[in-house]
Specification:
This protein is an all-alpha fold and 443 residues long. The protein has helices spanning 4-7, 11-17, 22-35, 44-51, 60-69, 83-89, 92-113, 116-123, 147-167, 173-189, 194-217, 221-238, 241-257, 261-275, 281-297, 301-316, 332-345, 349-362, 368-384, 388-401, 408-421, 428-442. It is globular and about 70 Å long.
């Protein structure tokens, strides 16, 4: 029998992937991109296009990332056709593939550097608008919508997630909200076939969840609830269980942070039921942790412990190709961080602090927002243990990270720790934290 490796049209890249699933390899590519300041939207589908030979030559961004991952290798040594050959050959298939990838590079860079109008360009939604009006609100009834439009909405979701990992939700919410409104205008006003409809529904629903998360992270909890409800309604209409599970998952997290723990438990349990048929143990692990967070707030230690144990067991089952792309943040660091939050809510400060330290040690450096979150959590837990100097030191580290991250949620955590430490300014470390925090606010 011929192996999958033998059938690959790019056997070099297939061999470099090794035992990783396409989804795992895609995540590795995204991590490598962040290490060098690049932003690529690699997913399992893109990996498949490389290995099938559909992508003969990657765009410049991917070339830089692959050279970073495999130092000293040229495009040809990685199994690709050189850019010069692709341009010279000029066959329709090669030209289409190359131009498509180059356009992706342009779209991505425009999104990352531009304002609302540039976002419209990225999505291909910059249709003619009346004088003085914004191009993001001009999708007219009957506008023809194709696969390319749906794909650009999908790309916008990926780019928003990439930016959120680095910067947090505050600076992205308004811009992403405009993109979401345009996506739903395409869905509600556009003209399209059934295949495009399903893809656009799923993409718009995922975008609603992303915007909901940005609202959550920036302290707009009621807005977040509305966006998650919109995503859930879209999932139900589209008969999309993956989107439904994601909607319930984020709703559970929001309910916990909003002080509605029973709702958090119910939403997590609903998500788990939907997820049973999706084949992702990692997704079920995350949902078990969402449920654990609700139980912790309810002060039900036994139920919380059972959920944490289940989450750890499911996580240990390993990744699969069924794992959703949006779960790239859920690694060992996040598992430990969520556990820290549970023990903290239960007042078990030693366990909470140990888990927070583990999360910080395991966190990849490009997830700056999460690193700030875990550091703020550690400061809170150290304060719970009565370790004033240690809590202040961790608080200083969190304040430094907040210079790069715009997250109201994390900023509020740090502010709470500072408020509780202020009466102890006779401790030198505490005085240093208070001074640094006040200076950051003044700046």
């Amino acid at each position: 029998m011929t192996s999958t490796l033998d059938r690959s049209q790019n056997p070099v890249m297939r061999e470099l992937r090794g035992d990783q699933s396409p989804g795992e390899f895609a995540a590795a590519v995204r991590r490598a991109a962040r290490e060098i300041g690049e932003h690529v939207s690699c997913d399992a589908r893109y990996v498949g296009r490389i290995e099938s030979g559909e992508i003969r030559c990657p765009n410049y961004a991917y070339e830089r990332v692959f050279r970073h991952m495999f130092p000293g290798s040229s495009l040809e040594e990685l199994g690709f056709t050189s850019r010069q050959q692709v341009r010279r050959r000029g066959s329709p298939s090669d030209a289409t593939s190359w131009n498509h990838e180059e356009n992706d590079d342009v779209h991505r860079r425009t999104f990352l550097s531009g304002g609302p109008a540039a976002v419209a360009t990225v999505l291909g939604l910059d249709r003619a608008a009346p004088p003085g009006s914004a191009p993001l609100t001009t999708v007219s009834l009957g506008t023809r919508v194709g696969v390319a439009d749906a794909r650009r909405v999908e790309e916008a979701v990926r780019e928003i997630r990439l930016l959120d990992d680095v910067h947090g939700g505050d600076s992205l919410f308004d811009r992403a909200g405009r993109v979401l409104r345009t996506a739903y205008q395409l869905l509600n006003c556009g003209s399209y076939g059934r295949g495009v409809e399903q893809r656009l529904q799923s993409a718009a629903g995922e975008l609603a969840i992303s915007v909901g998360w940005l609202a959550h992270d920036s302290g707009r909890l009621s807005d977040a609830r509305s966006f998650y409800a919109e995503a859930l309604a879209t999932a139900r209409m589209a008969n999309d269980p993956a989107l439904e599970a994601h909607s319930f998952c984020n709703s559970a997290f929001l309910a916990r942070d909003a002080g509605r723990p029973r709702e958090a438990v119910r939403a997590a349990q609903a998500a788990h039921q939907v997820a049973l048929g999706l084949g992702s143990e990692r997704l079920r692990s995350l949902l078990a942790m969402r449920e654990a967070g609700g139980w912790a707030q309810l002060q039900d230690r036994d139920a919380c412990r059972r959920s944490i144990t289940l989450a750890q067991r499911l996580y240990a089952a390993g990744p699969t190709e069924a794992d959703p792309e949006w779960m790239s943040f859920y690694g060992e660091a996040e598992l430990a961080g969520l556990e820290a939050q549970c023990w903290s809510a239960l007042g078990e400060w030693d366990r909470a602090a140990a888990c927070a330290r583990t999360a910080i040690e395991l966190q990849q450096p490009h997830f700056v927002r999460n690193l700030a979150l875990y550091t703020a959590e550690l400061a809170h837990d150290q304060l719970g243990r009565g370790e004033l100097a240690a809590a202040a030191d961790s608080g200083c580290q969190a304040v430094a990270l907040l210079a790069e991250v715009r997250s109201t949620r994390i900023r509020d955590m740090v502010a709470d720790t500072v408020v509780r430490l202020r009466p102890h300014r006779s401790v030198p470390e505490v005085a240093a934290l208070v001074n640094r925090y006040d200076a950051a606010l003044a700046g």
